[in-house]
């Protein structure tokens, strides 16, 4: 069982077909399994409301994802979901994790501009 599945409640949301290019803001811990099912390729943004670089990067992440057909974005507030952040070993913000089929394949810590985010996605997709 992968790290995300162990860390999160067992509730799942059935989906007949993945919907990609969407932005999810985690509102309830039980939603994550459904989001993972809908998102074979998922960019997870661990952020905080008080984090300046997180605020700076937010529109860039959303813009990149809005133009991506193969990747969804899940935004997780580290203060609201501290247990999930600990399970993913998030120690600084922003931390962005790329997941394929529920498994982490790549991550970066610190702010990147739009072109840096695109490059990270391309490199992660190739893994």
How would you write the strand order of the largest sheet?
A: 1-3-2-4-5
What is the first-to-last residue Cα distance?
Answer: 20 Å
Number of strands: 5
N-to-C order of helices and strands: HEHEHEHEEH
Cα-based radius of gyration, to the nearest Å: 13 Å
CATH architecture: 3-Layer(aba) Sandwich
Give unreliable regions as ranges.
Answer: 1-19
Instruction: Give the overall shape, derived from the CA principal axes.
Output: globular
Largest sheet: 5 strands, mixed
CATH topology: Glutaredoxin
Helical fraction equals: 25-40%
CATH superfamily: Glutaredoxin
Q: What's the CATH C level?
A: Alpha Beta
What does this 3D model show about the protein?
- There is one protein chain.
- The protein is α/β, with parallel strands linked by helices.
- It has a single domain, classed as Glutaredoxin, CATH 3.40.30.10.
- It contains five helices and five strands, in the order H-E-H-E-H-E-H-E-E-H.
- It has helices at 3-7, 32-38, 52-66, 82-87, 114-125; strands at residues 23-25, 41-47, 72-77, 95-100, 103-109.
- A five-stranded mixed β-sheet has the order 1-3-2-4-5, covered by helices on one side.
- The longest helix is centred in the middle third of the chain and has 15 residues, at 52-66.
- The chain is globular, with a radius of gyration of 13 Å.
